[in-house]
Amino acid sequence: MHASLQPYIELIRSFIERRITADEFETRYLAMFKAETAHFDEDTFDTLDGLFADVDAYVADPALHDSPEDLDDEQLRARAACALDKLTLVDG
């Protein structure tokens, strides 16, 4: 496994297992991804980048959902679970 991938896996697991809130996941994931300096293979990067887009589409306040692309907590959790599946397949 790429050593830099483990923090992502741990963060995503914390979120899908409800140990952290969607708001906390959003803050931590965006910061982690933006600060990343490791070079991942294309499939891994595409998965992490796709989750970045999903996190960016997360809107905490349901009253502010004004686009079909906006995600709520559960939708973001589902997308994170899919990303985790892909990352752990890459991990082996």
Automatic annotation (TrEMBL):
MF-aspect GO terms: toxic substance binding
GO biological process: bacteriocin immunity
Highest taxon listed in the record's lineage: Bacteria
Domain spans labelled Colicin D immunity protein: 5-87
Listed name of the protein: Colicin D immunity protein domain-containing protein
Species per Swiss-Prot/TrEMBL record: Saccharopolyspora thermophila
